[in-house]
Write a structure and sequence with these properties.
Number of strands: 2
Oligomer: single chain
Radius of gyration: 21 Å
Distance between the termini: 23 Å
Structural class: mainly alpha
Length: 234
């Protein structure tokens, strides 16, 4: 994400540390606010049976009401913020997938850009059109079926990013233990989560996605071992 979007928002390289660290602080604050909106929902609250969007919007509204923001405006702000997160996530995901396709196949030019984007949208389109089911065989919307493995996918990407940092540090002869240990922890927890999903969903649509991610995790572990144990140059 940083290479494709954040880097274009920096005036100079020295801004990266402040912007990157500041973004992490804001993301942490956002997580606290999200947890606070859930904490405000009592077990007997009439909102408990409402759709998640309504619960989230009203939770944000209650939170903002402490600062004098009217309830209706607070709901609108909460839903607007949520839709913004979804849209930017889809945009960023498609953009990064296009970058990967272009680099992997060494594509360049305007036509290649559009073809790579189209290729990245084919798989999501297939998931939308194909019927998906949970562990009990009940039909599920595509987003709800894929959501359980989204967290594992995200953490697997974090493991890849940490591996890149470890390799870079080793190549430059620097200490890498402080990055290596988080990489091991992240990878182990991700593999554990995927194994639980495979055990729960078997060969269903979610289970097959989890199997694919397990294969990617195995590749990550193999490549890390080759580099860190001296099998290939860093």
């Amino acid at each position: 994400v940083a290479s494709g979007t954040s880097s274009k928002q920096l005036n100079k390289e020295s801004d990266a540390r402040v912007v990157g660290y500041g973004a992490m602080l804001i993301e942490g604050l956002l997580a606290v606010i999200a947890l606070s909106t859930v904490m405000m929902l009592a077990p007997g609250d009439e909102l408990a049976g409402k759709p998640p969007l309504i619960i989230y919007g009203n939770g944000i509204a209650r939170f903002l009401s402490l600062f004098g923001v009217p309830h209706a405006i607070g709901v609108s702000i909460g839903l607007l913020a949520l839709s913004t997160f979804i849209l930017t996530s889809l945009d960023t995901g498609t953009r990064l997938a296009r970058y990967i396709v272009e680099e992997f196949f060494n594509l360049s030019g305007t036509l290649a850009r559009y073809l790579a984007t189209l290729a990245c949208l084919v798989l999501p389109a297939l998931f939308i059109l194909m019927p998906l089911h949970d562990a009990q065989g009940n039909p599920l919307p595509a987003w709800k079926a894929i959501w359980p493995v989204f967290g594992a996918t995200n953490q697997l990407l974090a493991g890849v990013a940490l591996l890149v940092v470890v390799v870079w540090l080793k190549r430059h002869g620097r200490s890498n233990l402080f990055v290596f240990l988080p990489m091991v922890f992240m990878t182990v927890m991700t593999v554990w989560s995927l194994c639980l999903l495979v055990g729960q969903y078997g060969l269903s649509s979610i289970g097959l996605i989890a199997w694919a991610l397990l294969a990617l995790a195995a590749v990550l572990i193999w490549e890390a071992g080759r580099v860190l144990l001296g099998g290939v140059p860093a």
